[in-house]
Specification:
With about 350 residues, the protein is mainly β. It folds into 2 domains: about 220 residues, Sulfite Oxidase, Chain A, domain 2, CATH 3.90.420.10; about 110 residues, Immunoglobulin-like (Sandwich). Strand 14 and strand 15 form a beta hairpin. The longest helix is centred in the first third of the chain and has 9 residues. It is globular. The N and C termini lie far apart (about 45 Å). The structure holds the ligand Nc1nc2c(c(=O)[nH]1)N[C@H]1C(S)=C(S)[C@@H](COP(=O)(O)O)O[C@H]1N2 and molybdenum atom. Ligand MTE binds next to strand 5.
Length: about 350
């Protein structure tokens, strides 16, 4: 089931098979406000269900006044809203943890930003008349498989309070076009501020439950120190800044080669809990405040930043570090956990200036 790699143990074939199905966003795409669909990272636990949108519908069931069965046309006839949202996989940064938790072996590429369009989740919940004594809304995807020894569809619960927030969206479009199969066609949940696992793709059902929901997709997302530790649930994205790797790469090692002189270091920063207030860039031990771009393209979108480095020949480590409005600051060192989630330790990038 879940295992931590032995010291020095390489990526396994099982991890490699996951890594070649899922994909990261090349970090040079941090230069863009909105990630093109073809560059958006992907994280798919089971198989992509290829749904026929003409026979598909969304059922709203459980603790409701009137059950709903909505076609895509029904949803499209309701008032439309859009949000630009930065989505990050909770496992982003997993392979940088030491010891390395086995799982989808992300470096730092499990993040992207898209413009999602659809209907507000609240409007659908109100249409169904969801009971006030509902504890969790359970979102069901069409994809099915085994996780942590249990076979089920991909299901996630979210509290009624969290689900009723303004920004929650049932999205049928991404960057102005119908969703593609890999991103959840024909409909997915978008939960701005939350790590990726909450944004249920291939949605078929919303079940209003008077109980708390727990399942393998909750067990897989907890901050646990050991097998005996139940840990806290993973919810909102921790603050993080990432930089566009400067200069050019060596094609086999991906190490960065930079020419001496003025080098523009830029990137993006985000947090699921509050706006970004500060980004620091460090060259080895010397730290500088980056300039934040004017406002980000939306409250839930990453915030651009930049800093100009006067680079002299030598070997250096560049780091960047974000703070958010709640006062949360990225840690310099990892906060290790068994499942390798929420690793927002600062990015470190080795560059050679010559
Ligand atoms: N039904 C379903 N929804 C899902 C998943 C999945 O495997 N099945 N993966 C989740 C995870 S872990 C992440 S990080 C995001 C990734 O969304 P993307 O592939 O569109 O970037 O989708 C989430 N929603
Ligand atoms: Mo994820």
């Amino acid at each position: 089931m879940r295992r931590v790699a032995e010291p020095g143990e390489a990526i396994t074939f099982a991890e490699l098979r996951r890594a070649t199905r899922n994909r990261g966003m090349p970090l040079e795409a941090l230069a863009l406000d909105v990630t093109p669909v073809g560059l958006h990272y992907l994280m798919i636990h089971f198989d992509v269900p290829l749904l026929d949108e003409d026979s598909w519908s969304l059922r709203v069931v459980g603790n409701v006044e009137s059950g709903l069965d909505l076609s895509l046309a029904d949803l499209r006839s309701m008032p439309q809203t859009s949000h630009v949202v930065t989505l990050e996989c909770a496992g982003n940064g997993r392979t940088l943890m030491e010891p390395r938790p086995i799982g989808q072996p992300w470096g730092l590429e499990g993040v992207s930003t898209a413009e999602w369009t659809g209907v507000s989740l609240r409007s659908v919940l109100e249409l169904a008349g969801v009971g006030a004594d509902t504890l969790d809304l359970v979102f069901r995807g069409a994809d099915r498989g085994q996780q942590l020894g249990i076979e089920d569809e991909y299901r996630r619960g979210m509290s009624l309070d969290d689900a009723m927030r303004d920004e929650l969206l049932l999205a049928y479009e991404m960057n102005g076009r119908p969703l593609e199969p890999q991103n959840g066609a024909p409909l997915r949940l978008v939960a701005p501020g939350w790590y990726g696992m909450a944004h249920v793709k291939w949605l078929t059902e919303i079940d209003a439950s008077t109980d708390r929901f727990d399942g393998p997709q909750h067990a897989a997302y907890r901050y646990r120190q050991s097998e005996d530790d139940r840990g806290e649930p993973v919810c909102r994205m921790r603050p993080r800044a990432l930089m566009v790797p400067p200069g050019v790469p060596d094609s086999s090692t991906r190490e960065r080669l930079v020419e001496p002189g003025q080098v523009l270091i830029r990137g993006r920063a985000w947090s699921g809990s509050g706006p970004i207030t500060q980004v620091e860039v460090a060259v080895d031990e010397s730290t500088h405040l980056a300039d934040l771009d004017p406002a980000p393209v939306g409250r839930w979108a990453w915030h651009g930043w930049s800093w100009t480095w006067n680079a002299e020949p030598g070997e250096f480590t560049l780091t960047c570090r974000a703070s958010d409005a709640t006062g949360d600051v990225q840690p310099i060192d990892q906060r290790w956990n068994l499942l390798g989630v929420g690793n927002n330790a600062v990015q470190q990038l080795a560059v050679t200036v010559s």
